[in-house]
Fold this sequence. Notes:
A: five-stranded mixed β-sheet, 17% strand, B: alpha+beta, five-stranded antiparallel β-sheet
Amino acid sequence: xxxxxxxxxxxxxxxxxxxxxxxxxxxxxxxxxxxxxxxxxxxxxxxxxxxxxxxxxxxxxxxxxxxxxxxxxxxxxxxxxxxxxxxxxxxxxxxxxxxxxxxxxxxxxxxxxxxxxxxxxxxxxxxxxxxxxxxxxxxxxxxxxxxxxxxxxxxxxxx
Amino acid sequence: xxxxxxxxxxxxxxxxxxxxxxxxxxxxxxxxxxxxxxxxxxxxxxxxxxxxxxxxxxxxxxxxxxxxxxxxxxxxxxxxxxxxxxxxxxxxxxxxxxxxxxxxxxxxxxxxxxxxxxxxxxxxxxxxxxxxxxxxxxxxxxxxxxxxxxxxxxxxxxxxxxxxxxxxxxxxxxxxxxxxxxxxxxxxxxxxxxxxxxxxxxxxxxxxxxxxxxxxxxxxxxxxxxxxxxxxxxxxxxxxxxxxxxxxxxxxxxxxxxxxxxxxxxxxxxxxxxxxxxxxxxxx
Lengths: 159, 284
């Protein structure tokens, strides 16, 4: 049997715990699907070629670039965005620390920063400042200069 | 920017992939991790008619050890290699190189096979494979063939892979316990494309280095095995005069083209600095 070859594909994924089925154009990125089809505009679109990290979301528990994954590739997978991770309370400590340390100005990079940072907090509780900087090397901030962001993440790691 | 229109198919078997490649030729592209391909689509540098998603072919993923050989499936991600205890123990060069590949979110998705098949001149895995004398398994409709890494990379984004073939596995013989490895790289920022990098392996016995392999990235159109520097260092201790001799030999081994930020002379200087660091690390 010949495989099915289409420009739009019926796709079922779980987004923040809710199953979603849509017919999705193959060319649509996961981040555009989340923002434009589901209205989850907390994750941002920046460079659209994998450099800036503002579109960071989680797929099957791992951080990924939302602009470097097609939405159809998320078929059968579990997607989590800043909205879901905020509601669940998982990011509460980081959010509080970012607020207290003034680790954002315009806030455009913040959703991606928080989701990327949480992966380090969860997997590497003893991470040094250097490791924090390495881990966030793929998330650009054009306002704060990173010092306050690293401070905030360090606060959470040292708790 | 947004990717152009294309058709998409999720392959269920390699046989299906070969059938599609035969039917669509250059109009089809394989989608593995997509961390370079989707960026290229977004920038409209590539406009295939069909993307063949091979990521659900689970037989192309995973790390196996057998008879002194590590066999890594092409779909194994950079992060899986980075975190694998088997890799850390038996092929430490790969564990040393992995953190230099882009950023965590990209390492979670990008694949070993994708990096090798793309053959970006600044990529880490191709140089590591040349340094470790890796063998690649390539599958096609009529069967499989094997090719050494040093014969696979042909030039700028050019390889021995035919449009109807799929790179399925990488096999690397484990160096013995008296072998040491080092991976050093210089980039503008952590995770950026390498300006220059070096994958180095050698046997260390009684303070001397033998069976030395030095494979550069970012210093040519493909990984460069620095045979002159290897010969200059062979059987010697890593000391000021031997390192100077190896560095001097690089003049014949390397002929880098300037990039946007670094002149050819700068790149040569950095390659010499990296050689000194790598040799010192191998001897330490």
